[in-house]
Amino acid sequence: MGAKLLQGKPIAEKIKAEIRAEIESCSKKVTGVPALRAIQFGDDQASALYLKSQKKAAESVGIRHEVTALNAKAVEDDLIGEIERANRDPNVHGMIVQMPLPKSFRVDRILEAMDPDKDVEAVTTRNLGRLVINKAGLAPCTASACVRLIEETGVDVYGKEAVVIGSSKVVGLPAFLLLIGKKLTSMICHTGTFKSGALRSHVRRADVLVVSAGQPRLIPGGWVKEGSIVIDVGINQVDGKTVGDVDFEGAKQRAAFITPVPGGVGPLTVMMLMKNLMTAFKLQKGIGS
Length: 289
Ligand code: NAD
What we know:
By secondary structure, the protein is of the alpha/beta class. It has helices at 8-27, 45-61, 76-88, 107-112, 125-132, 141-152, 172-181, 191-195, 199-203, 248-252, 266-285; strands spanning 4-5, 35-41, 64-70, 94-97, 161-165, 185-189, 208-211, 229-232, 236-238, 241-243, 257-258.
């Protein structure tokens, strides 16, 4: 029997309904429309696509989406100036600094200029630090999407073994921290694990496997534990096809649940961003969740 598919779209629709209900309930307590501001520099194609999907998701739930575009002559301090303006603006509840930025810009300095309460992508040190101490708040969207997909299986994963592959600050590391927070026995693997030849032995034990390495079909289906939950974050182009980091056909024969690529984690990520915006809105309006 094959694994059940964890499709992102129907879950994204569920989250949409949750956000609409949240907005409705907030509108009875406070004034103001939840608003997200994206600060953009240059004309990168991937960044433009991300902006489009933010706008679509925001409009679908009733969040205002604004874009501040800096011209090509702008310098690092102009960008910081825009961030500070958004920090001070009571009508902006969350912001995103669109990547990529010019190579000469100091990305860390720029991101840390954001008010952590408005950092809806959770890239500031304070928001990552809150995850470390398992305090509720803003968590990176893709990592939260992974956890939501696991929750949607309905499986009781308390105390089960979770293995996360990839330790990036935006996906792997926060996913690992969120899973520890949910009381899974968690570990993180990276290139060092791969090079030492130990990856397989860890993957085989995983009741929950989250893979975010950006390496096409890194995980052969035969490594996947029978009855496990497999969350494949990877997006790779191979021979004109989009594939994940897991050998989907092989893994599907062994896992109980698996995300397809595309269509699994992806559709959820931007909705988690909207959820974060609502968390930020309520925080700033002094409404408990
Ligand atoms: P990254 O490049 O920042 O980090 C990759 C991590 O994987 C590193 O920690 C590295 O040590 C580890 N890694 C690389 N090769 C490995 C190997 N052979 N064995 C073990 N570990 C290995 O990547 P990221 O930002 O976390 O993104 C990873 C993938 O997820 C990419 O394909 C990206 O496109 C995709 N992604 C998808 C979404 C989504 O919404 N679906 C969001 C973000 C990223």
